[in-house]
Specification:
This protein is α/β, with parallel strands linked by helices. The chain has helices at about 5-25, 95, 105-130, 145-155, 170-180, 200-215, 220, 245-255, 275-285; strands spanning about 50, 60-65, 85-90, 135-140, 160-165, 185, 195, 230-235, 260-265.
């Protein structure tokens, strides 16, 4: 199954920009918004997500996927382990606002858009909770920075919270690099390493700034007074995209009585392997 990283986002963004430019040249009726405009959250809750499965199911997975991608990905929670649940994929700001990807937004604007994505996720979460559903909040990669931001700024209303392949305290050299358009990875799962492909700009920089806008958060501080006993945190010790949790991050979760599932030698996508999914599902059912 496809797991999307920042380089994939930049490639899709580039192709999408070319297609949009060609369509604008060929079709005089096309309306193009050239300047950045801050996202306005749609008023209809149904416009904030796409769903799969049977809506009458008692349990709903509310999912925040990785990226940030220019379009909504509705594949991550389609594994067989989750087929008995109603799967709801929440849109992020850049999914409903194309001016983010077609312009170079500032870091402050990126932070504002991240907060809008946070608000959108919470609104969907609350919608299903108000309907009397058992709600499982779930995330991966970039989504696993949105979801802790929800926990830090909103009431913790989910029945279970599954955060996969994120970080609580991303090293400053990484988020500052992304803020400035310089990409980093973790080849050994531990050491932040510059990508070496040069500095990105334009809409590509908007994408990395969205990541930095959440990556700057010190979630061990922001969640220090929060009840996160319903959190199941899943990470691989050789995660090449965001790095493994440090001993301090892991200790924080343990101290807060969260459940920690560590995948030895696991990478950024190892939590989607059958054994890991079975372990996650076992914790959800407890």
């Amino acid at each position: 199954m496809k797991r999307i990283h920042i380089k994939y986002y930049l490639l899709v963004l580039f192709i999408g920009t070319l297609v949009t430019s060609c369509n604008s040249d060929d079709d005089a009726t096309t309306t193009t918004i050239t300047g950045y405009q801050q996202t306005v959250i749609p008023t209809a809750i149904q416009d904030l997500y796409q769903a799969k499965g049977t809506a009458t199911k008692d349990t709903v997975i509310v999912y925040a996927h990785g990226g940030p991608t220019p379009s909504l990905d509705t594949q991550d929670a389609e594994e067989s382990q989750f087929q008995n649940y109603y799967r709801v994929y929440v849109k992020q700001a850049q999914h409903i606002n194309q001016t983010i990807g077609s312009n170079e937004i500032t870091f402050d604007q990126a932070i504002a858009e991240d907060n809008i994505s946070t608000e959108m996720y919470y609104e969907v979460l609350k919608h299903f909770k108000d309907e009397g559903k058992v709600v499982i909040a779930m995330s991966h990669s970039f989504g696993s920075f949105i979801l802790p931001n929800v926990l830090a700024t909103k009431p913790n209303i989910a029945d279970k919270v599954v955060i996969m392949a994120g970080r609580l305290d991303m090293p400053a050299i990484v988020w500052e690099g992304f803020r400035d358009g310089n990409l980093y990875g973790f080849p050994d799962g531990v050491t932040p390493t510059a990508d070496g492909d040069g500095t990105v700009s334009g809409g590509e920089l908007s994408a990395t700034r969205l990541q930095a806008g959440l990556g700057k958060n010190r979630f061990t501080e922001l969640l220090a007074t929060k009840d996160i006993t319903n959190v199941i945190y899943v990470f691989g010790t050789r995660d090449e995209a965001v790095g493994s949790l440090t001993a301090a991050e892991e200790q924080f979760l343990t101290t807060k009585n969260a459940t920690v599932l560590k995948i030895d030698n696991g990478d950024h996508s190892s939590m989607f392997q059958p054994d890991a999914l079975d372990a996650i599902l076992g914790e959800i059912r407890q």
